[in-house]
């Protein structure tokens, strides 16, 4: 809640307000070992709006390509005296590993199948602003739950904020024991979506399927795609969300993604404010301020 309130502060600021460069003199390194559009750019914009010197390290153009290890990369970034490091990595737990090796705060921009915490924060902010509260909302998350760090982080945030969470996936894309996360699992999307306040769709992550079940596009859309017809089963005016990138015509039809119930572009806008809040709060110690960090 604290970080959501902090993010609201940045959303409320208008174009005519005096620029707030509270991170001036600090160096923010965005080290991305996996592709990204929304997360990388919004962290870069967030840092720059706060006055930080922002440097992006793309793994594809770095010495990682020459075989440098993750730990050596982390030690190198640390030696450059970064004040905050933002990491995206394809391996679950890689961010934790780096955080243990460096002297500055580290922000997780998505690690493997594990977590994507700033995505969950921006999703919570979107729901709170659109629906008034997260508590009590019936939220269905549908798609490739097994490989989704977004699903995991959203489930943790939604249940912490007292939403009622349903998850829906083909049985091969549903993690075993998901009930232990205080959610109700479904394999039938028509049942799961019934009376939902919020419908969150997920991409099928073919890049994380090591020889597992990859459904055909036609079959997947028929059983798990969010079509305009299927959306009618949810509450009237139910919010439609997707973290992006979308596979239009697979997990979501364009008619819905671009329709009046969609909050997808709003999610992106919330991302900048949430990341400004995280950067501000996590650098308070470096700026010798009292605060949550
Ligand atoms: N939602 C999200 O993480 O998108 P990107 O992969 O484009 O950053």
From TrEMBL:
<feature type="binding site">
    <location>
        <position position="88"/>
    </location>
    <ligand>
        <name>carbamoyl phosphate</name>
    </ligand>
</feature>
<comment type="pathway">
    <text>Pyrimidine metabolism; UMP biosynthesis via de novo pathway; (S)-dihydroorotate from bicarbonate: step 2/3.</text>
</comment>
<feature type="binding site">
    <location>
        <position position="39"/>
    </location>
    <ligand>
        <name>carbamoyl phosphate</name>
    </ligand>
</feature>
<feature type="domain" description="Aspartate/ornithine carbamoyltransferase carbamoyl-P binding">
    <location>
        <begin position="3"/>
        <end position="128"/>
    </location>
</feature>
<dbReference type="InterPro" id="IPR036901">
    <property type="entry name" value="Asp/Orn_carbamoylTrfase_sf"/>
</dbReference>
<comment type="subunit">
    <text>Heterododecamer (2C3:3R2) of six catalytic PyrB chains organized as two trimers (C3), and six regulatory PyrI chains organized as three dimers (R2).</text>
</comment>
<keyword id="KW-0665">Pyrimidine biosynthesis</keyword>
<feature type="binding site">
    <location>
        <position position="38"/>
    </location>
    <ligand>
        <name>carbamoyl phosphate</name>
    </ligand>
</feature>
<dbReference type="InterPro" id="IPR006130">
    <property type="entry name" value="Asp/Orn_carbamoylTrfase"/>
</dbReference>
<dbReference type="GO" id="GO:0004070">
    <property type="term" value="F:aspartate carbamoyltransferase activity"/>
</dbReference>
<dbReference type="Pfam" id="PF00185">
    <property type="entry name" value="OTCace"/>
</dbReference>
<feature type="binding site">
    <location>
        <position position="119"/>
    </location>
    <ligand>
        <name>carbamoyl phosphate</name>
    </ligand>
</feature>
<comment type="function">
    <text>Reversibly catalyzes the transfer of the carbamoyl group from carbamoyl phosphate (CP) to the N(epsilon) atom of ornithine (ORN) to produce L-citrulline.</text>
</comment>
<feature type="binding site">
    <location>
        <position position="66"/>
    </location>
    <ligand>
        <name>L-aspartate</name>
    </ligand>
</feature>
<comment type="function">
    <text>Catalyzes the condensation of carbamoyl phosphate and aspartate to form carbamoyl aspartate and inorganic phosphate, the committed step in the de novo pyrimidine nucleotide biosynthesis pathway.</text>
</comment>
<dbReference type="InterPro" id="IPR006132">
    <property type="entry name" value="Asp/Orn_carbamoyltranf_P-bd"/>
</dbReference>
<protein>
    <recommendedName>
        <fullName>Aspartate carbamoyltransferase</fullName>
        <ecNumber>2.1.3.2</ecNumber>
    </recommendedName>
</protein>
<dbReference type="InterPro" id="IPR002082">
    <property type="entry name" value="Asp_carbamoyltransf"/>
</dbReference>
<feature type="binding site">
    <location>
        <position position="244"/>
    </location>
    <ligand>
        <name>carbamoyl phosphate</name>
    </ligand>
</feature>
<keyword id="KW-0808">Transferase</keyword>
<feature type="binding site">
    <location>
        <position position="203"/>
    </location>
    <ligand>
        <name>L-aspartate</name>
    </ligand>
</feature>
<feature type="binding site">
    <location>
        <position position="245"/>
    </location>
    <ligand>
        <name>carbamoyl phosphate</name>
    </ligand>
</feature>
<comment type="similarity">
    <text>Belongs to the aspartate/ornithine carbamoyltransferase superfamily. ATCase family.</text>
</comment>
<feature type="domain" description="Aspartate/ornithine carbamoyltransferase Asp/Orn-binding">
    <location>
        <begin position="136"/>
        <end position="281"/>
    </location>
</feature>
<dbReference type="InterPro" id="IPR006131">
    <property type="entry name" value="Asp_carbamoyltransf_Asp/Orn-bd"/>
</dbReference>
<dbReference type="Pfam" id="PF02729">
    <property type="entry name" value="OTCace_N"/>
</dbReference>
<feature type="binding site">
    <location>
        <position position="116"/>
    </location>
    <ligand>
        <name>carbamoyl phosphate</name>
    </ligand>
</feature>
<feature type="binding site">
    <location>
        <position position="149"/>
    </location>
    <ligand>
        <name>L-aspartate</name>
    </ligand>
</feature>
């Amino acid at each position: 809640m604290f970080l959501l309130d902090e993010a609201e502060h940045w959303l409320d600021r208008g174009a005519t307000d005096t620029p707030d460069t509270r991170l001036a003199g600090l160096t923010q390194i965005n080290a991305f070992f996996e592709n990204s559009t929304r997360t990388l750019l919004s962290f870069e914009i967030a840092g720059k709006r706060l006055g930080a010197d922002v440097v992006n390290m793309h793994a594809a153009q770095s010495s990682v390509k020459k075989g440098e290890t993750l730990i050596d990369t982390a030690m190198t970034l640390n030696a450059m005296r970064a004040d905050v490091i933002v990491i995206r990595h394809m391996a679950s737990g890689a961010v934790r590993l780096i955080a243990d090796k460096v002297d500055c705060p580290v922000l997780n921009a998505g690690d493997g199948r594990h977590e994507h915490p700033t995505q969950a924060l921006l999703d919570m902010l979107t729901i709170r602003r659109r629906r008034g509260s997260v508590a009590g909302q019936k939220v269905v998350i549908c798609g490739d739950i097994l490989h989704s760090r977004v699903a995991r982080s959203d489930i943790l945030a939604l249940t912490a904020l007292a939403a009622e969470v349903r998850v829906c996936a083909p049985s091969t894309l549903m993690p075993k024991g998901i009930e232990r996360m205080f959610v109700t699992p479904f394999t039938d999307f028509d049942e799961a979506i019934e009376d939902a306040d919020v419908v969150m769709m997920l991409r099928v992550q073919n890049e994380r399927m090591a020889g597992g079940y990859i459904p055909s596009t036609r079959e997947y859309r028929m059983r798990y795609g969010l079509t305009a017809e299927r959306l009618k089963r949810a509450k009237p005016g139910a919010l439609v969300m997707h973290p992006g990138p979308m596979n239009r015509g697979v997990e979501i039809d364009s008619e819905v993604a671009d329709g009046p119930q969609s909050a997808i572009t709003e999610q992106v806008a919330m991302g900048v404010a949430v990341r400004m809040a995280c950067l501000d709060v996590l650098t308070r110690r470096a700026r010798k301020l009292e605060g949550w960090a």
